[in-house]
Amino acid sequence: MNLLKTHLIDSNQAPPTIPKPANALRILHTSDWHLGKLLYGQARYDEFAKFLDWLQDALLDYQVDVLIVAGDIFDTMTPSNRAEHLYHHFLATAFLHQIKHIVIVAGNHDSPTNLQKTKEVLGVLNTQVIGAIDDEPHEQLITLTDSDNQPIAIVMAVPYLRDRDVRTSGDATSIEQKNQLLLQGVADYYHSLANLAKQQQAQIRQTYQKTVPIIATGHLYAAGASVSSDDDGMRDIQVGTLGQINANIFDDVIDYVALGHIHAAQMVAKQNRIRYCGSPIAMGFGEIGRHKQVLLVDLPLDKKQIHSENLPQNPPQIIDNNTISDIAVHSLPVPIFHNLARIVGDMDFIKASIHQLKSYEQTIWLEIEYQADTLIANLKQQITDLLDNSQLVAVSIKNKGTYQGSLKAHTPTVNLEHLDEMEIFYKRLSKENLNNNEEKLLIDAYQTLLKQMQETDANAQ
């Protein structure tokens, strides 16, 4: 298979025109920044900085009232000083630009303790940070106000929910039963918080004679959602809260659900009001060709009608060409800030592709995968010679050549840096003589242990 896919900066890309309706509350929904993430050991701080600068401009240009970041701000629970600087510099600049409200919730990659250590300081900068749920559910309800201190929206600010956050009582003798109790706990939590939001909405209606919208956040894996790619960096562990959440946990009273965790932008359960915005930059070479975006969401400041079950399927209703009666969701494309290219094929194809990419005269990171029925022992040196005196950088070279002669087919050596934890475990299992049931039990147990390790907040006391 010969394949050349490119992910190149387009300086001629014009931003779309998206006028803001007169009576709308405009939200910008983003998630999964993964600040500090490496790509085959290569730092990407310049790329992250350019994205955050672009986001600052978008907040101003599109007159955004509320910025929601739905988790995975950082790539690890112990982010570097440089990653934290990017984060805090962005929030301080947004405050200077007079962005009215910022709501940030933790994802599964974030340390709740690390995020909340600056919670009080950031609160002064119009930024509400929710690292973990509070013992009192009403603490997750944030009432947003305008410059006159009038309420404009209610936010159910829900971060990534860990087992200990929502674990329900009950006897469980198997992993499946434990997962079912966990899923029920997540559903119960959202339902109880929605009931509190309804009460808060009713009180505002009684006091101010208007019905403000309700917005919810979540960092989870909704049933039916599509993962972006095999190498997008998402910890795709199919247990607990990561694989089976049904959209019916989101009460119909919620006008918009801003989700994070999945890196591919998409609707959930065909409902316009429940959305993943996806990661804003490509997290791996497998995401080349993916449309990266943030979402602009317009909601009426005063809902004239009760939210109906059919609302998500209906298009937004524009009144007098300047006002809005229902939800409107707009995709705002994120520019490419760093060039990537993926080359898969035999040596002749690799040579031709490198020659083509040299013509761009730009720095391009390459993932090169050699595939042919011929073994090449000095592949890395050959490619290094081809890239000499160019701005092309091969950050990954994979040799998948095989010998198909009379001798037994050669299986290339696997580089551990190209495998995740589960792939390594699967390879170890393949060496054992196990039946299907035994394999399933071991896989479930290993996934559960991985999940517990990844959810342990090393910064907590």
Compact description:
By secondary structure, the protein is of the alpha/beta class. The protein has helices spanning 45-61, 81-96, 112-116, 119-124, 163-166, 175-208, 347-358, 379-387, 421-429, 436-455; strands at 3-7, 24-30, 66-70, 101-105, 127-130, 141-145, 151-156, 214-219, 256-260, 266-268, 271-276, 293-300, 318-319, 323-324, 328-333, 339-345, 364-370, 392-399. It starts with a strand and ends in a 6-residue tail after the last helix.
Question: Could you characterize the architecture of this molecule?
Answer:
29% of the residues lie in helices and 21% in strands. It is built from ten helices and 18 strands. It has a six-stranded mixed beta sheet. α1 (45-61) packs parallel to α2 and α9 runs antiparallel to α10 (436-455).
Q: For the terminal residues, how far apart are their CA atoms?
A: 52 Å
Largest sheet: 6 strands, mixed
Can you tell me the overall shape?
Answer: globular
Low-confidence stretches: 235-242, 305-321, 405-409
Number of helical elements: 10
In terms of quaternary structure, what is this?
Answer: single chain
Instruction: Give the % helix.
Output: 25-40%
| E-strand count | 18
Class from secondary-structure proportions: alpha/beta
Q: Give the SSE string.
A: EEHEHEHHEEEHHEEEEEEEEEHEHEHH
